[in-house]
Amino acid sequence: MSKTTVTIWNEFIHEQKDEKVKKVYPDGIHRKIAQMLGDKYNYQFATQDMPEHGLTQDVLAKTDVLIWWAHVGHAKVEDAIVDRVQQRVLEGMGLILLHSAHYSKIFKRLMGTGCGLRWREANEKERLWTVEPFHPIAKGIPQYFELPNEEMYGERFDIPDPDKVVFISWFEGGEVFRSGVTYTRGMGKVFYFRPGHETHPTFHNPTVIKVIENAIDWAKYEGATDVMKAAPNIKVPLETIRSVEPK
Ligand code: ZN
User: Fold this and answer.
1) How many Å lie between the centroid of ligand 1 and the Cα of residue 202?
2) Does residue 243 carry a pLDDT above 90?
3) What's the CA-to-centroid distance between 183 and ligand 1, angstroms?
4) Which CATH fold topology does 5-112+177-229 show?
5) Spatial contact of 15 and 21, defined as CB atoms under 8 Å apart
């Protein structure tokens, strides 16, 4: 079986401008995620400053799963590229959105809601509860796991009802958040996963990476189906139609 091709898109702005972030992710969040995931997958990397944000037709055509991390650059992502990514999701490409990607154009487009939330930067503890232990994304993940320092995201998270809520976060300050949610859009599977603030080593955490690995395996492109290939006008029915003209 050929390896799944994962394209990791990172706006790659904080890591080049902010010394604190550079210390945690010297090669960028995208490279760290790939390094932690290891050689199970083929990787393509794309960043905002590349032509077409690195998401050319060719790159997307080869992508089984697209991972998206972004924060300060959302507004500068070209709408034509958002259209292209959306189209590819509808055709069956998996999409995993991390942390502040909740406000990305592509997530808002796919959700059709504002995608806002409450937040606080206080380096507080986050405890993630696995509430769908038999979901493929929760495979091998304990009943709960903790991140010692994270940014807080709290409800209400302005998203449509998810297909599944796989993880719920509790924060030291008292808020809760639907932190791992799945959707289906067209033929594509979409997973939003909350942790991953740029100043914390969240993507150094093996459990966080295991969730991302599970999500890749769950969301990967499965190939065009007969449903997609079917001609929209079915002139020859399977059964003989006996209807007669009404008198
Ligand atoms: Zn953040």
Assistant:
1) 11
2) no
3) 22
4) Rossmann fold (3.40.50)
5) yes
